[in-house]
Amino acid sequence: MIxxxxxxxxxxxxxxxxxxxxxxxxFTPELLRELHRLMxxxxxxxxxxxTLLRQGRTTFYAQSxxxxxxxxxxxxxxxxxxxxxxxxxxxxxxxxxxxVSMFDLISQCLGTNSDxxxxxxxxxxxxxxxxxxxxxxxxxxxxxxxxxxxxxxxxYLGTDEITIxxxxxGATSEGDWHAGMNMAGATKAPCLxxxxxxxxxISTSLREQTASENIxxxxxxxxxxxxxxxxxxxxAVMEVCLHAAEWVRAGNxxxxxxxxxxxxxxxxNADADAEKHYRTRExxxxxxxxxxxxxxxxxxxxxxxxxxxxxxxxxxxxxxALVDAxxxxxxxxxxxxxxxxxxxxxxxxPVHLRDQEAFLRQEQAGGRA
Length: 369
Ligand SMILES: Cc1ncc(C[n+]2csc(CCOP(=O)(O)OP(=O)(O)O)c2C)c(N)n1
Ligand SMILES: [Mg+2]
Prior knowledge:
By secondary structure, the protein is of the alpha/beta class. It is built from 14 helices and seven strands. The protein has a five-stranded parallel sheet, sandwiched between helices. A two-stranded antiparallel ribbon has the order 4-5. Helix 4 crosses helix 13. Thiamine diphosphate is lined by residues 90, 138-140, 167-171, 198, 200-202, 263, 267. Residues 37-337 form the Dehydrogenase E1 component domain.
């Protein structure tokens, strides 16, 4: 039994890698190594995409470094392609761990012809139909009411699908968040809300964000259980999310999971060198010392299945090579033509858009007479 509303985050693995609760049988060395692989790949994906940003090949990126256990753990506790995910903009690691290909992600970031949205979305705001991974919106918490609506529809249709809705700590101050939570609670909709509490909303700290002691206690007001979990302990994240998802799937209504983690990098390319402006280097160093990948490596070592330095180096090199190859493959498909911005929305294009398209066509042909 996993208790909601605990004063401290639930944890399975201590920072030194020793289990503090019995490790469930599903955590075989093979699974733990697979989780490790996904987390290292995600970390290196961040590094490579930041390089692409600096080269001017993409224009926006929000890294998830430090938050890999939260996103990979959540991904591995859902039924991919069956459940529906309403994510937020830092969730590319969630997508990767759900099986979204690096090629699709990179194509979206570069806005090439191979991009599933063909360059119409802001970079790093992808959506992929195969995984029921709904298009990301930049407007904080705007995904929460439609996620509740999605779950209400699932309930009325009588499916055993559930909806998973993610957001940051900052999102919980938005009106949309409360409206969505209230709707899901009042209708007992099958929605698993997951707060990726990285303790900062750009430059606003968690303490400035809310007078509540933590985020998960807010669930009480909406008639749902709130679970508090160490978001840098992948075993804990998976166990709690699996438990909460099963509870939701069984028809009990929604649940909230708060994963306590930390964003070790900048918020996005809009605020490089974050700690110089709003947080101390000491704070960042402290959380770098609680790295989720290192903790999993220590657990594997404790269990007698260590990841060697050579294996880790090979995995990093392999990821870099894969990203490089997929960038070239995506760029080779070229940039979408300007006309595509008028396509795929209306079956019959409204008159104002027809006028705009005609205007642009004339401009492209050398300007108006
Ligand atoms: C409605 C709205 N208000 C403000 C912003 C500007 N903004 C972008 S990200 C962000 C911080 C969000 O923090 P959090 O929800 O904790 O997510 P994190 O970036 O930490 O993962 C803000 C205020 C926005 N995108 N949308
Ligand atoms: Mg945050």
